[in-house]
Amino acid sequence: MSSTKHGRHVLTDWRPEDPQFWQARGKAVASKNLWISVPNLLLAFSIWMVWSMVVAKLKLVGFAFTTEQLFWLTALPALSGATLRIFYSFLVPILGGRLWTTVSTLSLLIPAIGIGLAVQNPQTPYWVFVALALGCGLGGGNFASSMSNISFFFPKAEKGNALGINAGIGNLGVSVMQFLVPLVIAMGAFAPVVGAPQIAVEKGVESQIWLQNAGFVWVPFIVAGAIAAWVGMNDISSARASFSEQAVVFKRMHNWVMCYLYLGTFGSFIGFSAAFPLLMKTLFPDVNSLQFAFLGPLVGAVSRAMTGWVSDKWGGQHVTHWVFLSLAAGVLAVLYSVGATGADPSFGLFFASFMWLFFWTGVGNASTFQMIPAIMRSDMPRLMPWADAPTRLKSAEMESAAIVGFSSAIAAYGGFFIPLAFGDSLKATGGPETALLFFFGFYISCVALNWAFYARKSSLLHATQQPA
Questions:
Q1: I need a surface site. Which of 137, 270, 304, 428 has the fewest CB within 10 A?
Q2: H/E stretch holding 209
């Protein structure tokens, strides 16, 4: 996007670290872009995870899919979303945040309309649902570009909180979707537009549902969000960079370390969000658990949005240490709740344990993203000893944005592997214990890695980011 065309949307003078500039102009512009970005990201997450609710209803309306096939459908959006994030994470500095937010939001119409059409016919072949599940990954890809874009707007003192709000309320799209879909599929108010109802049979009781509403309900909001992005957002001219300039992050050791840690936080959040409804329904079939499914992603999204300031104040590396210890403890509680230790299975403890897990994934999502710009600012004197302070700061900002996007891409694969791990564990042993033990070991490895690189006293961040 050139500065001559649509020039009023291009910010040629952008100095968020200058206190006078920030108070006089910068804060208002950054806040405007943030609050347009937030609902667009919320819609992206809603579309990305919509299968987590749709698949739980497919058998009820006559689709003859196995439990393993259904778990695959919950996993595939994360697979495609994670892969798209790899590319999306580099697009904002190339195309501009305003244009790409508009285009990527409009792309959500493809899976939304496709789902609405496909679920109306029980004869729709499985491969169509596989294609649509992969298409939902368009929503997953948006996160990388959205976070990369917002990271350019805010000063370092407010970056953790801004990214936490953008990601946290964006993550809330999973909960909004899981709350809204059961309501809209029970409504026939729009039947003349969206089509005839299906007959759902559950425990011998018949009822009418409009499963297509799970896709169609998002269409007007997607259009409105795209228009808002095109009309109201800005591009930052100094944030422009080619792919080759950004690709330097592949040589940065800290990029790969943070990918691993963020896989443990966001990968857990999105993986548990995808698997939680079907896992509850499978393990506790006598409980009407789907009505509670939205609470897990809600807890995770709110904790992410509300705790970014904690990492800004105390240091993300210290918060992350306690996050992974808490996640490991939560997995042990889930193991106990499903009877792995010989106790009777307890839905109440199972549900509470997952709420604990969702809460700490949200805290960890905020803390790890706060760490990335702090790490790159701290490491730039070593990486660029010949450069002056402004040059180092600009490079740190560019590389931080690229790492934020790329690490979110790698972490999103957790949304693929976690449902698949639960499905394979259930198929092989009849229970989720094998998958849970693997998760426990992974969280312990994250504790060790974070301590070795960032949390111990002699680490890179200790000297440059003391608690306030």
A1: 428
A2: strand 205-209
Location of structure tokens 């789902």: 115
Answer yes or no: are the C-beta atoms of 344 and 139 closer than 8 Å.
no
Cβ neighbors of 280 (< 8 A, separation 6 or more) are 287, 289, 290, 292, 293, 347, 350, 351
How much of the chain is helix, strand and coil, in % rounded to 5? 75, 5, 20
Q: Burial of 205 by CB count in 10 Å (0-12 exposed, 13-18 middle, 19+ buried)?
A: exposed
Instruction: Return the closest-CA partner of residue 353 out of 332, 383, 370, 378.
Output: 332
Q: Which two tokens stand for residue 340?
A: 């792995």
Q: Where are the alpha helices (H) located in 195-314, listed in sequence order?
A: 213-216, 219-232, 243-246, 253-283, 295-314
Distance between CA atoms of 142 and 44, rounded to whole angstroms? Answer: 6
With tokens 């997607």, the residue in question is 222
Residue in this structure with the two tokens 């009849």, named with its chain if needed: 430
d(CA 291, CA 293): 6
Q: Is residue 466 part of a domain?
A: no
Helix axes 156-184 and 347-383, enclosed angle (nearest 10): 150
Local confidence band at 451 (pLDDT 50, 70, 90 cut-offs): very high
Parent domain of 18? 7-455
Instruction: Name the one residue in this structure whose structure tokens are 């459908």.
Output: 73
Classify residue 286: in a domain, yes or no.
yes
What is the predicted pLDDT for the residue at 364?
94
Reported as a single tens digit per residue, the pLDDT across 410-446 is 888 888 889 889 988 998 888 899 999 999 999 999 9
Half-sphere exposure of 462 (CA within 13 A, CB side): 10
Assigned domain for 18 exists: yes
Element (H, E) at 205: strand 205-209
> How high does pLDDT run on average in the chain?
84
Q: Mean pLDDT throughout 123-130? A: 90
Mean pLDDT for 247-269 is 87
- 370: CATH: 1.20.1250.20
Tokens of 214: 């799970």
Distance between CA atoms of residues 292 and 92, nearest Å? 37
